[in-house]
Amino acid sequence: MKKTNYRNLKLIIIELVLLVISICTYKYIFEVETTRRIYAEETEKFVEENKNPIFSIDKIILCSSATAVDNSDGKLNDLNISQYTDISLYINNKGRSEEITAENTVNQLFINNIKVENQIQGSKKIFNYKNPLYSGKYVELPNWQNDGILFNVVNTNEKNENANYDENIFYTDCSNPISLGYINKNFLVNGVVNRSNAVINFDGSILKDAEVDLETLKTKISFSVNLTNNFNENFVCNVSLDIDLDSENEEIYSGSLIKILDLKEDKFNFIKVSS
Description:
Layout: H1 2-51, E1 56-70, E2 79-92, E3 106-118, E4 124-129, E5 149-150, E6 152-154, H2 157-161, E7 169-171, E8 178-191, H3 205-209, E9 219-229, E10 234-243, E11 257-262, E12 271-274
Parallel strand pairs: 6-7
Antiparallel strand pairs: 1-2, 1-11, 2-8, 3-5, 3-9, 4-8, 9-10, 10-12
């Protein structure tokens, strides 16, 4: 009897173990299949939502020039030279509808993940909001802080009438560009210009007079534009810009260089990240 009872108990334990294994296996398969189905549904939803984006950056204008400070009382043999580029990003919010709605208007806007890269060491690289009324002119800018660049969104007529463009202004209906400025400050110190030129101007032509190699000024600026619409849906667009002052006609040596980027590629669409 004892041997029989032991054998029966052993069989019961084995059956229980097999039952537990079966339940765990079924649970694992069920969870894997559920996760796979949810992922497929979310992926399909993500693709569908972003196939026809609500917001996109469809044009970027880059205006580049330079300036200098003469430390030699007009002798032009001790110059601190800075190069700057003004950046205007135009957001298209009419991709789905020509009408202004809560879906395609902006409630919050900020820029983060800012990175500025070039081969020049020692210069101060500044990137921040710039008053659009000074576009094409050199003005001093503070550098961005660790939390990025936060914009004041104008969403009422009263705020519109009292808008101060020295502040980080952006209109809820995307009717004005995101206005930014980049300065490669004092990339050349103790510079000397070519005195054979009859006229020396403190603009982009100073780069030629000081025999600056434009290749050394090539800069890559990358950042993320984050916005929230009036449905409290969050979107992000990752932007990467090459600041290249070289051109076939060397316009920068004439004073300034303007480049207009007409964007047709999907990489400048805003992707919905949450709602």
